[in-house]
Design goal:
Blueprint (H helix, E strand, L loop, with lengths): L3 H12 L4 H10 L4 H10 L32 H39 L22 H28 L8 H4 L17 E5 L5 E8 L9 E5 L7 H12 L10 E3 L12 E8 L5 E6 L2 E5 L4 E6 L5 E10 L5 E10 L2
Antiparallel strand pairs: 1-2, 2-3, 4-5, 5-8, 6-7, 6-9, 9-10
Helix pairs in contact: 1-3
């Protein structure tokens, strides 16, 4: 019967990382019988070594009550060499992979993102002109009705304010005061426009509406008016007609822009157009082959990527003042083959 303390000793030293031959040598040197040692290794789940190198133990460690641990440990490199190799390889490869990913992103993703989403085909001899974006006629009609509704509400609100020295808490109060016979509603959803008065005695408000398309200087989506920012539908309509070419206006000397015709551009190259004016502009538009870009902040600079296809592209610039004046300039963009 093998001493279980011997089995436990072997298991413990194996867990601590000591080689089997050193454990076996230590036990032999301590006076344990080879047969007992071999049987203990088998019970510990290990095959006994055939030979063991002699080790001289201090006398006080000899005997059956052995709690000896070999003093010579295997080296750190021997025990963890494979892990160290993996770590070194990862340290070398990670920067390479990161740089490769960054290069690929810059090369393909960023270049694609910077290109305009609507790029037409240049007009050349024998090439039909590019088709203009499709316009939802019913959406345009609804947007025009929204502008009329907002103008009507703002007029009614000012009438109420003149009489009460405050704006109403609800739009329905305009009917109670017989200013309106009914409160206009959105032509598509059928609900009232979003009205928000400010303060207990309301001297300010916001009136919001959603457009289904761009119209004049107003953009598709949520728009807002207030007493200090009233809506002027006739001006908006005039601006929209100028942009669409429904009305013809002469080139204005009051508007100075970058002359893009001075040098050609490569496909995808960044193009910058600077706009200066002798009059105060509220907003500028740039049209290039049915793509519309805007800038609402002075100094006006519009940047975009040159179209991918070679050819000549007409570029139109529209400058709008807060009073509704429209100024037009034009240049030409050439893309190298």
């Amino acid at each position: 019967m093998v001493d279980q303390s011997l089995v436990s000793y072997i298991k413990q030293n194996i867990r601590d990382g000591f080689p089997q031959n050193e454990i076996q040598t230590a036990l032999v040197s301590a006076g344990w019988e080879t047969a007992d040692i071999n049987e203990a290794f088998i019970q510990a789940g290990l095959m006994p070594q055939s030979k063991a190198a002699p080790v001289n133990l201090p006398p006080e460690l000899a005997g059956e009550g052995l709690t000896y641990s070999p003093t010579e440990h295997t080296s750190f490199l021997a025990r963890h060499g494979r892990l160290l190799i993996v770590i070194v390889v990862m340290i070398i490869l990670l920067p390479v992979l990161a740089y490769g990913g960054f290069w690929a992103y810059q090369r393909y993703a960023v270049k694609s993102e910077n290109l305009p989403t609507q790029v037409g085909i240049p007009t050349e001899v024998g090439t039909p002109p590019p088709a203009a974006p499709q316009i939802d006629a019913q959406a345009v009609i609804r947007d025009e009705q929204r502008l009329k509704d907002i103008e009507s509400l703002q007029t009614a609100l000012e009438t109420y304010f003149t009489a009460k020295k405050t704006y109403p808490k609800l739009l329905d109060e305009l009917m109670a005061e017989k200013i309106l016979t009914s409160v206009p509603t959105d032509p598509k959803s059928g609900v009232q426009y979003l009205y928000s008065p400010f303060g207990q005695t309301s001297t300010d408000y916001s009136l919001s509406f959603i457009l289904e398309s761009d119209i004049g200087t107003l953009k598709k989506g949520l728009n807002e008016v207030s007493p200090g920012k009233p809506l002027k539908p006739e001006i908006i309509k005039s601006q929209e007609e100028a942009v669409r070419g429904a009305t013809t206006k002469p080139i204005s000397a009051s508007l100075q822009i970058t002359d893009l015709s001075q040098s050609p551009f490569y496909a995808g190259e960044e193009v910058t157009v600077s706009i200066n004016s002798s009059v105060a502009l509220d907003q500028v538009f740039l049209l290039v082959n049915h793509m519309k870009l805007t800038d609402e902040h002075f100094p006006f600079n519009i940047r975009f990527s040159a179209p991918r296809n070679p050819g000549e592209y007409p570029v139109q610039i529209f400058g709008f003042t807060n009073d509704g004046e429209t100024f037009i300039q034009a240049t030409k963009l050439t893309v190298k083959p």
